[in-house]
Write a sequence for this structure.
């Protein structure tokens, strides 16, 4: 069987690097990568071709390719987007729109639905108060969709754009058989933690930053309060979710947007876990009001029943397995502690 043609934008980011490795390990894909940056040496050999530069200006290049699947990961994350809002909108919305138009055009012209996998985020939610956040419990996809950040607004809007290009673009009569349209699928990710890479520009970054600092014996001042709680997930589960959702037959999907969850922890619980593994760790709390506000607006945890039902989603790592079987063994190897 011939290889499937895959485009991964934002390939140098945390999800990007892990996804390139995950797809390459499966085999059967010709992976084209795109990013503002050159590819790191660790994944260079896995990419058939790397397109370096600003996606918004590079989009024309991609009209010559015959992609079966697009993973559009390139984004300006929540903290960074809040200090450069116009630029974030350009990257997050304009970049996505251009790529969706390309996928929609190719799907219709060649009668073959291009799969478009989009990482959305818990930032699409906006809890109005801490009290509401506490009382809300597990939040469903259609609840509390009032993001407080530019990044969250961008993600929510791009979910809608994906739905538009996948279902309604061209505005045929409602009873008319629609043409072949792009196959848009989005996952709302919680904070992700990798043992191999560090995030930058996000606001859930305090989790991975604290753990990596503790493992290296570096002091860490956490930028949110000790009682701050949101959901997190091991990077291998994030990659698993993208690959499983990619494979699910379209008719099994009742929706285009899916929450996924693994474990929810407070920053103090992270600290306790870090101290248990690295008793000399020096972790203090120095909340930054802007970043605190962002995380306070995200739900404590999300309801992933829809993903469990439609595509049998289940994470491999709960909190204990995350620390004992993934993060700590890998991080000890990495930093030699
Ligand atoms: C961020 O903090 O901006 C991201 C996210 C939760 O989408 N990690």
């Amino acid at each position: 069987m011939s290889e499937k043609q895959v485009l991964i934008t934002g390939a140098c980011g945390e999800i990007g690097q892990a996804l390139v490795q995950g797809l390459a390990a499966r085999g059967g894909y010709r992976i084209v990568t795109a990013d503002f940056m050159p590819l790191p040496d660790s994944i260079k050999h896995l990419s058939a071709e790397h397109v370096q530069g600003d996606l918004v200006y590079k989009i024309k290049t991609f009209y010559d390719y015959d992609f079966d699947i697009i993973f559009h990961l390139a984004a300006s994350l929540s903290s960074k987007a809040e200090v450069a809002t116009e630029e974030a909108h350009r990257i997050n919305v304009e970049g996505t729109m251009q790529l969706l138009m390309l996928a929609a055009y190719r799907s219709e012209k060649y009668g073959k639905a291009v799969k478009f996998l989009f990482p959305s985020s818990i930032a699409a939610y906006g809890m109005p108060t801490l009290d509401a956040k506490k009382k809300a419990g597990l939040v469903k996809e259609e609840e509390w969709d009032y993001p407080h950040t530019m990044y969250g607004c961008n993600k929510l809007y791009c979910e809608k754009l994906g739905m538009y290009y996948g279902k309604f673009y061209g505005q045929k009569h409602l009873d008319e058989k629609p043409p072949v349209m792009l196959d848009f699928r989005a996952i709302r990710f919680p904070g992700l933690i990798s043992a191999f890479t560090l995030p930058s520009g996000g606001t859930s970054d305090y989790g991975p930053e604290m753990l990596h600092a503790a493992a290296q014996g570096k002091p860490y001042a956490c930028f949110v309060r000790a009682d701050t709680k949101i959901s997190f997930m091991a990077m291998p589960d994030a990659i698993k979710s993208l690959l499983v959702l990619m494979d699910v037959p379209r008719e099994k999907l009742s929706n285009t947007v899916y929450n996924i969850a693994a474990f929810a922890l407070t920053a103090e619980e992270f600290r306790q876990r870090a101290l248990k593994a690295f008793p000399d760790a020096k972790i203090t709390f120095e909340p930054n009001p802007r970043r605190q506000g962002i995380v306070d607006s995200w739900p404590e945890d999300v309801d992933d029943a829809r993903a469990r039902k439609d595509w049998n989603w289940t994470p491999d790592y709960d909190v204990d397995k995350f620390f004992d079987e993934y993060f700590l063994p890998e991080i000890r190897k990495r930093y030699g502690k």
In short: The chain is about 45% helix and 20% strand. The chain has a mean pLDDT of 96.
